[in-house]
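User: Predict the full complex structure for these chains.
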Amino acid sequence: MSAEPLLTVDRVSVHFRAGGNLLTGVSLVRAVEGVSFTLQQGETLSIVGESGSGKSTLARAILRLVPVTKGSLHYRGENLVTLSQDQMRPRRRMMQMVFQDPIASLSPRRTVEQIIEEPLRVHFPDLDRAERAQRVAETMDAIGLLPDMRNRYPHEFSGGQAQRIGIARALIVEPELLVADEPVSALDVSIQAQVLNLLAEIKQARSLSLLFISHDLSVVQHVSDNLMVLYLGHVMEVGPAGTIYSRPQNPYTQALLSAVPRMDFSADRPKRTRLTGDLPSPTLEHVGCPFASRCPRAQALCSTDKPVLTPVDGREVACHFPGS
Amino acid sequence: MTARTTGTGQPILSMRELVIAFDTPDGVVEAVNGISLDLYPGEVLGIVGESGSGKSQSWMATLGLLADNASTQGEVTFDGHNLLDLDSRTLNTIRGQRISMVFQDPMTSLNPYLDIGTQMIEALGTHDRSLNRADARRRCVEMLDRVAIPDADRRMRQYPHELSGGMRQRVMIAIALLNDPDVLIADEPTTALDVTIQAEILDILTELQRERGMAVVFITHDLGVVAELCSRVCVMYAGELVEVGPVQEVFEDARHPYTLSLMRATPRTTNTGSSAADDRAPDAAKRAALYAIPGAPPNMRLRPPGCAFEPRCRCAEPRCRTEAPALEALSDQPHRHKACFRTGSSEDLSRELLDVG
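Assistant: Here is the predicted structure of the two-chain assembly.
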């Protein structure tokens, strides 16, 4: 793990101008605020958070699908933020994305073969038709799609099969980094397991790096090496997944983990930390900790000083009063 | 044939041989295939299954809420009436008053043009004409308080879009409970919510259920929610009940291969321990794969002649392909039921599931 990271994200912020009306004027949504992390080759980092945590925006910002307001993104040492979209295009081959809604993310008018082949036409224009067909066939086989599905259309497939098509489309250009945004949230449990196992297999076989965006902590625990917990665009806790799951230090992480319904009937099942109140507006600029308004452990300091990520017990925590 | 429970006394609602079919341009689709089930007063009954298992439709039928192309057979008995045959006027004296329902997406149930107070008073008024407006208003505010909506008086004057998803779902629960129903049917009420908000809503539902002693039917795809909330569970697959019994017994000692498969396919958050040894486990590459149930659920127009789960079942025998097993009591635990020819223990079946492939 001492090698140069594949991806270094340094104090990245993403702000949007949003809505506004005659009375309030335009407001600034602070979707991502000063997020930093590194991703090694072959590593799976999961980014978890609830709605409004900025997890999807962060994923899109990393691929430069939304503009980065502040900070830098170094991919193999090169700062992507300073590249133009034209300069960015060849780099995109290395970083592919898998989306949440498998059927909506596939063009309804194209056959499976045309969908999977499309990125090849963009990134490998020199390949001839036979070579492309060969690559499509190989990729389909590796993903568990049968050859006779080539000429069918997305609506003929179940959610699980459609997600395989989405994964095949991402993998055909042999990326190094796969960004998967809630890839199994729309799938039934039995199908979800098929897709999660598939992701684990191809990640292993191709030594892919995976950014796995999810709201589902059980799924995340199953796939992650490392884990990053976001709240209102801020990193609350980041580190090895096992360490965080077994001894969460940030009160928000604790609340999140304890809220997951479990098939556990033992008497010593962890007690739920009950949160009160709603998520504050994402347009607020926080002087203190963004979680202070709902935190069971908050003190005066928390609303006046923003905690910074500090190493605690094998991971980093942004909290003035960490502890389990 | 009927699944009974630890539940006490007479059932409050009984389904008998309920069949629901939809007439579609591609032919008739049988969504629910003859289920029989009793709901007892004061119990929390979980209905789990994946998309298309019929878990929602069977309860929509109860309230006459099926789509126009649906047809039903069988009986759903409540208070001496067969709800499937009732005219809409009589059904309206039951619906929303004695049996209420909460849906997944509160935005589709609330009227966006009316403030919360107007909608709540209307729900009360439809069912209780003896109330004057001031009393009605007071009862609504009290109800909003009960579902932990802060500043209830002000909320009464707000519109649905001004509330967060969690708040809207609380309003829906408040409306459903205004008339103190005997039965609350909750169809994936927390599926669209964040997990911390879901936890709050589940706590509120549990409290209200205990306080009022109503029966709750909780429809969900989430086994964890069932484990936390319900006393008894019905597992559905392809429009049929495959296993029914007390939640803890079913989850700790499942006897139907589908129940077992579903449990093995569900990623779990393992217990948060406290020793440093826990850190060693998670090397994602070495982590055990989830059990992926092979194949996909059957096409409901071409239901297999035998057990509907047989094509995906690793415990199947030759007769499973030709003969459909009925829901029957377990020989060693007559209060539990399953629809499967195999008689093995949970361990034996698990071994067969996981050994092959």
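Chain A has a mean pLDDT of 91.
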